[in-house]
């Protein structure tokens, strides 16, 4: 009788532990999944660190134009394991050029019917429900074209994301003029001043073919004003590789609505890149996001 009671108690404890921890990704692997959105079969990869509790934060990572959702290049898996959050890598659909991308409103995407704002919104809700992830602590980062989507999501779905972080991203002129949102969304841009794909100085004449877009400092100052930031601090951060002669200037706008902040890491001489030759990009991203975990 006592032996049966002990077995029952142990079984209950094991079931309770299983209910508390979310399913986890196999070691060294990021499984692929699919879901339907807008009548299309969309795919994503998801990494769930071991022992991740219910209510954990979620970070969405968006690849660049022509890229894919492999976590190898810009992956946050190791960072997620250290700090305890889920990380999802959606896959962009193909445009008329046959390139995988996010529909950010480039001129050559005019006939692209894919609604990526809707897809990412539905994906977040799907992950929250399926894996019991936080309803409040959702963040988004992306490289280049993925960075443009960060700006768009912050403007068009401001209640969904606690903060966004475009890397080598741009704020397109059409979005700047159309944006009427008043909800504060903290934003962190990492950008090289020698970027020739997403020019630091902007491209209002659309010489690059991506559409007219704002100079990077102007876009960041716009977001600082939207967030009603009242303080500004500028520091120089030691680079990871001093021999390349580059320095990183951190511009931080603070004191915004509800404690929001807007950051800009200016990589002097940096090109179109994730920035990880000069800073520990993934750790810096989480340092920023973690300030807004509630």
Concise structural overview:
By secondary structure, the chain is an alpha/beta fold. The protein is 29% helix and 22% strand.
Q: Give the overall shape, derived from the CA principal axes.
A: globular
* Superfamily (CATH H level) name: Alpha/Beta hydrolase fold, catalytic domain
User: H/E order of the elements?
Assistant: HEEEHHEEEHEHEHEHEEEH
Any idea of the CATH class? Alpha Beta
Describe this structure in words.
The protein has 294 residues and is of the alpha/beta class. The radius of gyration is 20 Å and the shape is globular. The longest helix has 19 residues. The strands form 2 sheets. A 10-stranded mixed beta sheet has the order 1-2-4-3-7-8-9-12-11-10, with helices on both faces. A two-stranded antiparallel ribbon has the order 5-6. The protein has one domain: Alpha/Beta hydrolase fold, catalytic domain (Rossmann fold, 3-Layer(aba) Sandwich).
